Automatic annotation (TrEMBL):
Gene3D superfamilies: 1.20.1260.10. InterPro entries: DUF4142, Ferritin-like. This is DUF4142 domain-containing protein. It comes from Nonomuraea recticatena. Pfam families: DUF4142 (PF13628). Residues 42-172 form the DUF4142 domain. Transmembrane segments: none annotated. Residues 184-207 are annotated as: Disordered.
């Protein structure tokens, strides 16, 4: 009898341990840390720049489908229009939730680029389209990356990540035309000198 009771106790103990493990596996872990910090001036600037990008790239992409000589440039213009229509809706929604006022027209530089393209056609249009848009994407790409790296606001972080993916895609598309003059693009910033301690460690490692 004592042997049966001992077996039942051991069996019950096994069930209790298994149940405890199951509960631990099923229960959700602690929630991820979130931040609802008010948007900084950098956060707001990101939303404004993405909005303005759409305000000139959508009509310019539509124009490219009519004026461009290259089939590839026409296709790139179509992709820019499709992507910026989606991104434009999102930036308006995010800005509305965060109380950020967005512009309703492109920047002065963007308006000048649009005017320049409007005087071109054929191969000259293709070349200016690829180079003006590639240079513009390079500028906004660095802005988005810096905001994504340091923003304290969750919505801005998510939006910056999505925006960066679009901008990188567009840079790649524009480069695929074979018309981008890379020598005309701004030089990357000069790397900061390594701290003395790190430089000393590096020298020791190489000895």
């Amino acid at each position: 009898m004592r042997r049966l009771l001992t077996g039942e106790v051991l069996l019950l103990s096994g069930f209790l341990v298994a149940a405890a493990v199951t509960v631990l596996l099923v229960l959700p872990g602690p929630p991820a840390a979130t931040s609802t910090a008010a948007p900084t001036t950098s956060d707001q600037d990101l939303l404004i720049k993405v909005r303005q990008a759409g305000l000139w790239e959508i009509p310019t992409g539509q124009q490219a489908q009519q004026r461009a000589l290259s089939r590839r440039v026409k296709d790139v213009g179509r992709h820019l229009v499709e992507d910026h229509l989606k991104l434009d809706k999102e930036v308006i929604a995010v800005a509305s939730r965060l109380g950020v006022v967005l512009p309703s027209q492109p920047s002065a530089d963007q308006q000048r680029w649009m005017a320049q393209l409007s005087t071109k056609s054929g191969a000259a249009y293709d070349r200016d389209f690829a180079n003006l848009l590639r240079a513009a994407h390079g500028k906004v790409f660095s802005v988005i990356a810096l905001v994504r790296a340091g923003t304290r606001n969750d919505e801005i972080r998510r939006f910056a990540q999505k925006s960066n993916a679009f901008v990188l895609k567009h840079m790649t598309l524009l480069e695929s035309t074979g018309l981008v003059d890379y020598d005309a693009l701004p030089e990357p910033p000069t790397p900061s000198p390594a701290p003395a301690a790190l430089a000393a460690d590096s020298r020791r490692d190489n000895q």
